[in-house]
């Protein structure tokens, strides 16, 4: 478990559902994840699979308090009323009574990356604070926020995000963002911890995986965990879903330092999450 600054505990590895199609694919993948032992599922309104994920959790029969569910406000919604409206839509889609972690998906619309939306983010964040105050979500945070974006919402409201979910993997660790988060008690979550699969065939990581008797994917996920970052691996393959939870080994400090020094291992192009 990781512990957020408000005391809420969050399972240390989450099952990511970005790019998993709604319907049977999302439903079956979520069931496979729950069967494998995942107790943390990450989705978003923009993924269009909230209903499938929620149905899988309900059908699996797990107690609601035993599974941690994250979803996200669409990136283009930058108003108080809009945030409230879309929270209710996501909550209804999931059908799980409440949301454990609710995130602003990005500081700008995906259709216009980099657009100045500070005031809109502040208004949306005020809604998030109210959602949290009303106990409709157990924790609130952001995704893809730069330091300036996090400071803007915190300075305007006095409420710091509890989580920032960013693209993070070996060779692309965004040190300015992660440093700020760690200094301010904000948990960093890693989406695309395998660089959307690009790291799997990397020869350097293959050699390290052989050394530890694990897969490249397991090296990538353990790297995140040992850096205090929560990984969100995604797969639709039941065997890989199960294997991605097997991180009960330790990468030596020397090898961690080596991995910290790598750059350009995977593409650093910004991918939508």
Spans of at least 5 consecutive residues with low confidence: 268-273
Number of helices: 10
> What is the residue-mean pLDDT, rounded to a whole number?
95
| Spatial order of the strands forming the largest sheet | 3-4-5-6-7-8-9-10
N- and C-termini, Cα separation: 23 Å
Number of strands: 10
What is the 3D shape?
A: globular
Beta-strand content bin:
15-25%
The main pleated sheet reads as: 8 strands, parallel
- The class by helix and strand makeup works out as alpha/beta
Series of secondary-structure elements, N-terminal to C-terminal: EEEHEHEHEHEHEHEHHEHH
Helix content: 40-55%
What value does the Rg take, in angstroms? 18 Å
Q: Could you explain how this protein is built, in words?
A:
- With 273 residues, this protein is an alpha/beta fold.
- The protein has ten helices and ten strands.
- It has helices at residues 24-36, 50-60, 80-94, 118-133, 147-157, 175-183, 203-212, 216-226, 238-243, 253-260, and strands spanning 2-3, 9-10, 15-16, 40-42, 68-73, 99-104, 137-143, 163-167, 187-191, 230-232.
- It has an eight-stranded parallel β-sheet. It has a two-stranded antiparallel sheet with strand order 1-2.
- α2 (50-60) links the parallel β4 (40-42) and β5.
- α4 (118-133) packs across α5 (147-157).
- The chain is globular.
- The model is unreliable at 268-273 (pLDDT under 50).
């Amino acid at each position: 478990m990781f512990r957020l600054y408000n005391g809420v505990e969050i399972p240390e590895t989450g099952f990511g559902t970005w790019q998993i199609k709604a319907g049977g694919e999302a439903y079956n993948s979520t069931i496979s994840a729950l069967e494998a032992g995942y107790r943390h599922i990450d989705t978003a309104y923009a993924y269009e699979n909230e209903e499938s994920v929620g149905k899988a959790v309900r059908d699996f029969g797990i107690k609601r308090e035993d599974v941690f569910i994250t979803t996200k406000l669409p990136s283009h919604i930058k108003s108080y009323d809009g945030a409230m409206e879309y929270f209710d839509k996501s909550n209804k889609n999931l059908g799980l009574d409440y949301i454990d972690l609710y995130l602003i998906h990005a500081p700008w619309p995906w259709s216009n990356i980099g657009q100045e939306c500070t005031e809109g983010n502040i208004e949306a964040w005020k809604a998030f604070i109210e959602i949290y105050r009303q106990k409709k979500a157990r924790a609130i945070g952001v995704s893809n926020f730069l330091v300036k974006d996090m400071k803007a919402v915190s300075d305007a409201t006095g409420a710091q995000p509890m989580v920032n979910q960013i693209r993070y993997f070996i060779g692309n660790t965004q040190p300015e963002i992660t440093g700020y988060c760690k200094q301010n008690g904000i948990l960093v979550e890693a989406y695309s911890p395998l660089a959307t699969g690009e790291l799997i065939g990397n020869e350097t990581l293959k050699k390290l995986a052989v050394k530890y008797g694990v897969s490249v994917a397991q090296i990538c996920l353990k790297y995140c965990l040992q850096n205090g970052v929560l990984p969100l691996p995604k797969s639709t393959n039941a065997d890989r879903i199960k294997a991605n939870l097997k991180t009960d080994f330790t990468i030596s400090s020397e090898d961690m330092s080596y991995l910290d020094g790598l750059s350009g291992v995977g593409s650093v192009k910004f991918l939508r999450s």
